[in-house]
């Protein structure tokens, strides 16, 4: 049985098989988690991302972790929040599903996710967390992942994830 936890911390410092980057469609870096991952991984990450020719919203692509403690980076492009009527929920769920598929493809047994789309993309944090947890719980056993962390960037996000992880109905 896989272990799901919520933690506070710097995703770029975690020693896991794969970290997930909340990327934009270009995959060429940005602010927030994306910028921090690119800075920590070094210029080789940008070069690897250039070769991927971008990524569609709701999808994810993998690169090596380069200078990160993680062996892999899964670059997931979450949706920008437009009120919930433009398929945002399904696109966000697609990010989590695709990252678990990538974990299976590369043999990653431990994965750390940020709160995808909840920063500058304005996805409501509790709604995003419910989607993340429900999607992960429905797919984790087939992914081979044994340890999955939701890395929270502030105390409110951590509280949301801890509360929702205790709810077995999700």
Short synopsis of the structure:
With 170 residues, the protein is an alpha/beta fold. The chain has five helices and six strands, in the order ββααββαβαβα.
Secondary structure: elements and pairs:
Layout: E1 3-8, E2 18-23, H1 32-41, H2 43-50, E3 60-64, E4 72-77, H3 88-106, E5 110-113, H4 125-143, E6 147-152, H5 155-165
Helix pairs in contact: 3-4, 4-5
Explain what you see.
The protein has 170 residues and is of the alpha/beta class. It has one domain (3-165): Leucine Aminopeptidase, subunit E, domain 1. It has 5 helices and 6 strands; from the N terminus they run E-E-H-H-E-E-H-E-H-E-H. The protein has helices at residues 32-41, 43-50, 88-106, 125-143, 155-165, and strands spanning 3-8, 18-23, 60-64, 72-77, 110-113, 147-152. A 6-stranded mixed β-sheet has the order 1-6-5-2-4-3, with helices on both faces. Helix 3 (88-106) packs parallel to helix 4 and helix 4 packs across helix 5 (155-165). It is globular, with a radius of gyration of 14 Å.
List keywords for this structure.
39% helix; 19% strand; alpha/beta; 170 residues; globular; Leucine Aminopeptidase, subunit E, domain 1
The radius of gyration computed from the alpha-carbon positions, rounded to a whole number of angstroms, is 14 Å
- By CATH, the topology is Leucine Aminopeptidase, subunit E, domain 1
Structural domains: how many: 1
The helix/strand series, from N terminus to C terminus, equals EEHHEEHEHEH
Shape by Cα distribution: globular
Helix amount = 25-40%
CATH-assigned homologous superfamily:
Leucine Aminopeptidase, subunit E, domain 1
Q: pLDDT average, as an integer?
A: 97
Largest sheet: 6 strands, mixed
Strand content: 15-25%
Structural class: alpha/beta
* Unreliable parts: none
């Amino acid at each position: 049985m896989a272990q799901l936890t919520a933690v506070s911390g710097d995703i770029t410092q975690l020693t896991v098989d794969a970290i997930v980057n909340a990327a934009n469609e270009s995959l060429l870096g940005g602010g927030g988690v994306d910028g921090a991952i690119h800075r920590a991984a070094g210029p080789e990450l940008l070069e690897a991302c250039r070769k991927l020719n971008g990524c569609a919203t709701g999808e994810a692509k993998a690169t090596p972790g380069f200078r990160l403690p993680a062996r892999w980076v899964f670059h997931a492009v979450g949706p920008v929040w437009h009120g919930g009527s433009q398929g945002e929920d399904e696109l966000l769920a697609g990010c989590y599903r695709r990252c678990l598929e990538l974990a299976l493809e590369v043999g990653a047994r431990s994965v750390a996710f940020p709160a995808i789309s909840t920063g500058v993309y304005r996805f409501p944090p509790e709604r995003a967390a419910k989607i993340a947890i429900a999607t992960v719980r429905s797919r984790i056993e087939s992914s081979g992942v044994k340890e999955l962390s939701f890395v929270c960037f502030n105390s409110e996000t951590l509280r949301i994830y801890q509360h929702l992880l205790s709810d077995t109905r999700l």
